[in-house]
Amino acid sequence: MAKKKTNHKSQKAVSQNNKGLRSKIFETNNLFKIILLTIAFYFFYNSSFNYFSLDDYLINTKNPQTVKGIAGIPDIFTTLYFQQGEMAYGYRPIVRTSFALEYQFTKNLSYNPYISHVINILLYLFGILLLYNVLRRLLRNYSPWLPFLSVLIFLANPLHTEVVASLKNRDILLNFIFSFLAIQQFVRWADFNKSKHLLLGIFYFVLALLSKETAIVQLAVFPLVLYFFTDLPLKKLGRFTIIVFVVALIASLGPLLFLPDFKRSILLIENPLSIEPNYWLHISTSFYILGWYLKLLIKPYPMSFYYGYNTFPIVNWTNLWVWVSLLFYLFIAIVALKKLKQKRLISFIILYFIITISPFANLVMPVPGIVGDRFMFFPSLSFAMALTYLLFVIFRLDIHQTTVKLPFVKLIGIGFLLVLLLIPYGIITRNRNKEWRTKYSLFRADINHLRKSVKANDLFATECVNKVNRELAKPVDPYEFVKSMLDTAIAHYKLAVKIYPKFYSAWNNMGAIYSKIHANQALIRYRSYASKGKTKNARMEIKNATRYFNLAQSYFRKSIALNPNYKSAYYNMAYSYELQGSYSSAISYYKKLLTIDTNNIQVMSRLANVYFRNEQLDSARIENQSIKKVDSKSDYPYINMGNYYYLMGDTIDAIKEYEVAVIKGTNKPVAKLLSKYYHKKGDTRMEQYYRNQAYEAEKRQKIEEKNYNEKRY
CA dist 545 to 551, 553, 585, 688, Å? Predict the structure, then answer.
C-alpha cells in the first residue's frame, strides 16, 4: 500500500512539474510576442506620418474603383489591378478591396493617407505575430529561441521599409499573411487529418493569389514545409501538391475568362534584359543580380526606390562576380540536397530562400525595375533564420534543446551581438521610413546613388517640375525662387537622355519646361515692362522668350522624331507656338495631333480658339460644331463661341452661348459672369440662379482640388 501511495505521489509531482513547465513556456512565449511586437512597432510607427508616395495612385485616390468605396467592389473583381493606356498591371482584387473599404470610411477625412499607413503597420504587426506562431509549430522540436530570434532579425530588416511604408506594396503584406495562414492550416491538416483545415488552407492560398501573383511560388513552399515539419506520407504529399496546383491553375486562369486582354510589357528603361536576345547573357546577368541581392541582405544600405536601366549592366561570363554568385548558389543547393533526406533545418532554410528569390532572378522572365528592395521580403526570412542558426553554431548551443534555459554567459553574448545588429537596423529603418514621406523626399534621398538610372532621373526631374507648377499656381510670383529647382529638373532629364538618348519623353519634358515655364514667364515680364513703358527691358524679355521657345521646339522635334506617335510632344509643340503667337504653326501641329488622337475635344477646343485668334472665324465655328458632334454634353463649344461673340462686342449672342454652357456643365467663371450680367440688368431671380450655379461649381472645384492634393503625394 505504501508503495502505491509513493507512486501516486510521484505521478502527481511529475504532473505538477509538467504543468509548471507548460505554464513557464506559455509565459515565455507571451513575453517573446510582446518583445517582437514592441520592436516592430517602434521600428515602423513613424511611417504613419507619411503622405501618399511612389505608385500609391495605382490603388488609392486615382483609382476609379477605389474612390467608389463599397460600391466599387463588384467592379474591382471584374477589372485589372490598374490600366493606363497600353500598360496593364495584373489582377489583384483583394488589395484593391482593402483600399475601397478603407476609402469608404475615410474619404472625407483630411488625414486619409495616415490611416492607410496605420493599417499597413497593423498588417505588418499581425504578419509578424502570425509568422512567430507558425515557426513555433514548425520548429517545435528545436530550441524555443530559434523561432523568436529568427522573427526578431526578420522584422527588423531595413529592406522591409518599402513594403510597409509604400501603400501600394500592401499587396506583398497581404500575400505574406494569407500565405502563412495557408501554411498554418495545411500543417494542422497534416497533424489532425481534418478536411476543414485543408479547405481553409486552400481558401487562404486563393486569397494570397488574388493579392499578388507571385504567391504562385507557394506551390513549392507548401510541400516543402509539410515534408520537413510533418509526418505526412509521401503519397499523400503528392496528392496534396496536385490539388493545390489545380487550385492555383483555376485561380490564375479563371479571371482571364472575364478580364480584358492585357499584356504587361517590360520596357528597356525598366529592364534591359527585356530586349536582350542572347539568353546566355540573361543567365550571366541573373546570377550577377542574385549575387547583388546577397550583398543587399548583408548590407541593406543604400536602398533605392527604383533601379532599372542602366543601374545594372548586362554582364557576360567573364565577370568575376557572376562566377562568385554562381558557385555560391551551387554550393548551397548541393548542401540543401545532400541534407534533404535527413530533413535537416539548414536544408529547409536554403531551399525556402532559393524558391522565394527565384521569381525575381530574371531567369524565367525580366522583372520590372530589374531589381527591387521589396523583392527580398520573403527571402529575408531565410536570411534571418540562417543568422540565427549561425548564432547557435558560434555559441555551441544545442539547436534541439527544447527548454528555454540558456547559459547566462552565452545569453549575454547573443544579446550583445543582437544589439550590434538591431541598433543600426533600427536607425536605417526609421530614417528610411521618413524618406518615404512624399515622392519628392524619397527621390531626393536616393537620386545621388541612382544617377545611372534613366527612370529614376526622369521621375525625380518630373517631381521637381510638379513642385514648381504647384508653386507657380499660387497668387504670388515665386519664379525667382523656383529656378534652381527647374535647373535641377533639367540636369536630371539631361542625365536620363545621356544614358538613353532615345528616351523621347525626357526630351519632351525638357521642352515643356522651357516653353510652359521659362518662355511663359519671360512673356509675363515682357507684358509687364511694356505696360510700364520700359522698352529696353521689354525687348530683352521678348528675346529671352524667343530663345526659350526655339530651344523647347528643338526638344519637341527630337521627341517626335524618336516617337512619331507621341501625343504629348505634338500637343506641347502646338501650345508653344500658340503661346508664341505663331498661330499658323500651332494650327498645323494641333491638326497633326488630331490625326493621331482623333475626337479629343480638348485638342479640338484649343484648335478652334487658335483659329479665332488667327482671324479664321469660320474655321473656329466649324471646329466647335465638330466638338458638339463628338460630345453633345460638352460645354467647350458654347464657352468658346460665347467668348468669340463677347470679344467681338456681341453681348446678346455671347450670353445665349454662356447660358447653354452652364446647362451643359456648371462652370464657375461663366456662371459668375452671368450672375453679374443679370445683376446689372436688375433681374434678381436670374442673378440668384447663376450665383447658385457658381457656388455649385466652386464646391466641385474644391473637391477636385482636394483629390489633386491627395494624388500629388
Answer: 10, 12, 17, 44
Long-range contacts of 557-562 (CB under 8 A, 24+ apart): 558/504, 558/507, 559/504, 559/505, 559/507, 559/508, 559/511, 560/504, 562/502, 562/504, 562/507
Q: Are 79 and 259 in contact (CB under 8 A)?
A: yes
Q: What are the φ/ψ torsions at residue 636 (nearest 5 degrees)?
A: -50, -55
For 266-327, give the secondary structure using H, E and C: CCCCCCHHHHCCCHHHHHHHHHHHHHHHHHHHHCCCCCCCCCCCCCCCCCCCCCHHHHHHHH
> Residue 3 has what pLDDT?
46
What does the alpha-carbon distance between residue 248 and residue 460 come to, in Å, rounded to a whole number? 39
Only one residue has cell 519634358, namely 509
- The CA-based angle 315-319-324, given to 5 degrees, is 115
How far, in Å, CA of 573 to CA of 580, rounded?
A: 11
Decide the pairing of beta strands 83-84 and 87-88. antiparallel
d(CA 396, CA 414): 11
What per-residue confidence (pLDDT) applies to 267? 87
Report the Cα 220 to chain-centroid distance in Å: 27
Half-sphere exposure of 229 (CA within 13 A, CB side): 26
The DSSP call for residue 265 is P
User: Does residue 80 contact residue 260 with C-beta atoms inside 8 Å?
Assistant: yes
Q: Which residue has the cell 493599417?
A: 119
d(CA 554, CA 519): 14
- Could you give the CA distance from residue 494 to residue 73 in angstroms, rounded to a whole number? 43
Phi and psi at 87, nearest 5°, equal -90, 130
Coil, strand or helix: which one is 604? helix
Whether residue 520 contacts residue 542, with contact meaning beta carbons closer than 8 Å, is answered with no
Distance of CA 523 to the CA centre of its chain: 39
The DSSP-derived string for 440-505 is HHHHHHHGGG-TT-HHHHHHHHHHHHHHHHHHHTSSS--HHHHHHHHHHHHHHHHHHHHH-TT-HH
Q: How many CB atoms lie within 10 A of CB 196?
A: 11
CA distance 222 to 630: 56
Give the residues across from 87 on adjacent strands: 84
As given in the structure block, the three cell numbers for residue 339 are 541534407
Tell me the CA distances in angstroms from 264 to 89, 276, 312, one per residue in order. Answer: 6, 17, 21
Q: For 546, how many CA atoms within 13 A lie in the half-sphere containing its CB?
A: 7
Given a contact cutoff of 8 angstroms between Cβ atoms, the answer to whether 314 and 328 are in contact is: no
Phi-psi bin for 267: left (phi > 0), alpha (psi -120 to 50), beta? Answer: beta
What whole-number distance in Å separates Cα of residue 146 and Cα of residue 136? 9
The segments of the chain whose pLDDT lies below 70 read 1-26, 61, 83-88, 108-111, 666, 700-713
Question: Torsion angle of alpha carbons 367, 370, 374, 380, nearest 10°?
Answer: 90
Inter-helix orientation angle 567-580/601-613, to 10°: 20
Quote the strand ranges of 424-581, DSSP E: none
Residue 598 gets the label, from left (phi > 0), alpha (psi -120 to 50) or beta, of beta
Residue 83: beta bridge partners? 88
The grid coordinates listed for 335 are: 548542401
Indicate the pTM of the whole model.
0.88
Q: Give the pLDDT score at 708.
A: 40
Alpha helix positions (H), 166-194: 170-192
Nearest CA-CA partner of 496 in 488, 485, 507: 507
Dist. CA 571–CA 584, nearest whole Å: 14
Contact 551, 515 (CB under 8 A): no
Gap between the terminal Cα atoms of the chain: 82
Q: Do residues 444 and 464 lie in contact, with contact meaning Cβ atoms separated by under 8 Å?
A: no
